[in-house]
Write a structure and sequence with these properties.
heterodimer; A: 217 residues; mainly alpha; two-stranded antiparallel ribbon; B: 412 residues; alpha/beta; six-stranded parallel beta sheet; 15% strand; globular
Chain lengths: 217, 412
């Protein structure tokens, strides 16, 4: 097999330039027009951002709706959206707007946040660089993943799904070079419900399932 | 003396250090100059104290310059600082002239370093006019705002904006702190150094020595607020909260802080605090010298609960420090404290002395909560708010600024 080249990435957040949203209607209006980079940031990159919280939901729109709008119904509906299950960010945007339109249609009063609790629309630049690590044996994948930074785990297992081959993480794409021999590992990776993990938990889970696959192989 | 990068491996893991070294290689030899207004006292000086040598270790050509000013200059910049945080302060044309003149004098001294730098990071409002003076600059200039300027006193911001809008980019600690500006506004929360004198592990003997030195009773709960004697930190409100708790629990209170050389208001506030404390032997008001880092460290470790009842706050590094010592924090519902203190998870957010008193009593009744919240708090700091994350974001920012400030994806 060709060597697996470990990359790393670092994220730098910045203001998107969109005005903040103070209520559910403004949230809907901004999501309708924001850049795809903004949408991606709040649905996917949020996991790589420093936080003191481990919120119930993994996208910022759901967290804000729960904490600051106090609308648990829309928070639950937004929270279950898995961005990696949509073929494109355009379709993710459409699904998000459907949720918000449905809720706005049901509401007799628009939920709003107090000043200071508004939603800020962010985006970020991702810097990708070579981590300087190579390995060739699939049996050592678990050990290498356990030593990876959050940035490497994010880049290879989550961000990879945006790159061709779409929807496939880098580890699986590499293991498919010898699909028959590596089937237990490929199945192990596919078994993870990854969107709902923090990156440290995801790293632990990747290590665990790959080790189990190695034992059973 | 700052620690070397490898000394942090035991705390954050070798992968994190390796990541920094790889990023540093991409910026080898880059000349970066940090400029601020004080060498000691306050969070900014503390950050630059470790950041500059670590950037040098990573291969950058990093330096830290400090502007010098008269007492009058620092009174003016304190007014600007207060104005940016929303306080209605009169700043006259003559004051702005003092502000510009002092910067002009400093510029002459700093000119060679500033003109040749690849990146200049100007911290807070005090040195902001340097950019306008540096007409032959070669590099990129970044304004780093450490304070919350989300709701400024408009006349103060209107003038300051003319100095900062020409920068190539600005950095804010949180989105909530930013003001619209015509350049990229990056978000980089600050951090703490786990190996600094203020945060490193201490032996039980060292901690006990500090307890004994201040006459603190080991058998009773201790409330500790560490901060400069500054109106926005609401030390008098903390004493009010303490008095409400004292009606039912024999707690002790420590209000400890140093002065900063760029903060002329400290003495007046300290007098107000002393008056509010009166002759209560269980209120310990400690004006500490700027190098009392180990004393602060010990006081935070001795605390049962850390308080930071600010009414305005930048990021609130004393909160981060308290959390690193595994303590729950009762903090004002403002600024960066809101980012750090998650109610029932790592502490409580309060808006009034009554709220603070209520939460102190709540925690005193839930000892298991004190331990659980403290443990959670420490792990969040380890993952996200230690200096290794902070340096990574600065290195990333430099790469982005030097290559393509508005790119979404850069491969280096």
């Amino acid at each position: 097999m060709t060597p697996f080249e470990v990359k790393d990435c670092a994220l730098l957040g910045r203001m998107s330039g969109l005005p903040p949203a103070f209520n559910l209607r403004e949230l809907r209006e901004r999501i309708a027009v924001c850049g795809e980079n903004v949408l991606f940031h709040h649905f996917c990159e949020t996991t790589l951002r420093g936080t003191f919280d481990n919120p119930d939901y993994r996208n910022d729109f759901a967290v804000w709706s729960k904490l600051y709008l106090g609308d648990r119904v829309v928070a639950e509906r937004l929270g279950i959206l898995d961005p990696y299950s949509f073929p494109s960010l355009g379709e993710l945007r459409a699904a998000t707007l459907d949720v918000l339109d449905e809720r706005l249609g049901e509401s007799t009063m628009i939920p709003w946040a107090r000043p200071g609790d508004e939603f800020f629309f962010l985006e970020s630049t991702t810097i990708v660089f070579d981590a300087g690590i190579r390995f060739t044996q699939p049996s050592r994948l678990a050990a290498f993943i356990r030593k990876m930074t959050n940035g490497s785990v994010y880049y290879h297992f989550l961000e990879a799904r945006r790159r061709p081959p779409l929807g496939v993480d880098d580890f699986t794409a590499w293991l498919k070079e010898d699909e028959e021999a590596n089937r237990p590992y490929i199945q192990a990776l596919a078994s993870i419900d990854f969107y709902f993990h923090t990156l440290p938990h995801l790293r632990h889970e990747l290590g665990r399932v790959l080790t189990e696959a190695k034992v059973s192989k | 003396m700052s620690a070397t990068l490898s000394a942090y491996e035991g705390i954050v893991g070798s992968a994190v250090i390796r990541q920094l070294r790889r990023l540093g290689e991409k910026l080898k030899g880059t000349r970066i100059v940090h400029v601020n207004s004080t060498r000691e006292g306050g969070g900014v000086a503390e950050i630059l104290e470790w950041m500059t040598p670590l950037m040098t270790e990573l291969g950058l050509n990093a330096s830290w310059e400090v502007i010098h000013g008269s007492g009058r200059f620092f009174e003016v910049t304190k007014s600007i600082h207060n104005g940016l945080q929303g306080h209605s302060v009169p700043i006259t044309g003559k004051d702005w002239k003092v502000y510009e003149d002092v910067n002009a004098r400093n510029f002459e001294r700093l000119r060679p370093a500033l003109e040749e730098a690849d990146i200049v990071v100007v911290h807070d409002p005090q040195p902001a006019p340097l950019l306008k003076l540096c007409e032959r600059r070669k590099g990129k200039w970044i304004w780093r705002a450490h304070i919350d300027i989300s709701r400024p006193f408009r006349p103060a911001w209107k003038v300051l904006r003319t100095f900062v809008e020409k920068y190539d980019a600005s950095i804010f600690s949180m989105a909530e702190f930013a003001q619209p500006l015509p350049h990229p506004q990056y978000l980089v929360p600050p951090s703490i150094d786990p190996l600094s004198e203020k945060n490193r592990d201490m032996s039980p003997e060292e901690i006990e020595a500090v307890r004994n030195g201040f006459g603190l009773d080991p058998s009773r709960p201790l409330l500790v607020q560490i901060s400069r004697f500054d109106r926005f930190k609401d030390p008098v409100g903390v004493i009010e909260a303490y008095r409400m708790v004292r009606k039912v629990a024999k707690v002790q209170l420590v209000l400890a802080g140093g002065g900063a050389s760029d903060d002329p208001e400290g003495t007046a506030i300290l007098e107000e605090v002393m008056e509010a404390a009166g002759s209560d032997p269980d209120i310990h008001v400690l004006l500490l010298p700027p190098d009392s880092h180990r004393t602060v460290n010990a006081l935070q470790r001795l605390a049962t609960i850390i308080l930071q009842k600010s009414t305005r706050e930048g990021f609130g590094l004393t909160v981060t420090e308290g959390m690193w010592k595994g303590k729950p924090v009762i903090g004002g519902d403002v600024g960066g404290i809101r980012l750090q203190v998650v109610p029932h998870h790592t502490g409580f957010l309060v808006n009034t002395p009554e709220g603070a008193a209520h939460r102190i009593r709540y925690l005193l009744h839930h000892q298991d909560g004190i331990e659980r919240m403290g443990t959670t708090a420490r792990e969040f700091v380890r993952e996200n708010f230690l200096l290794t994350r902070h340096i990574r974001e600065y290195l990333t920012l430099m790469l982005v600024t030097l290559r393509d400030p508005r790119a979404n994806f850069i491969q280096v």
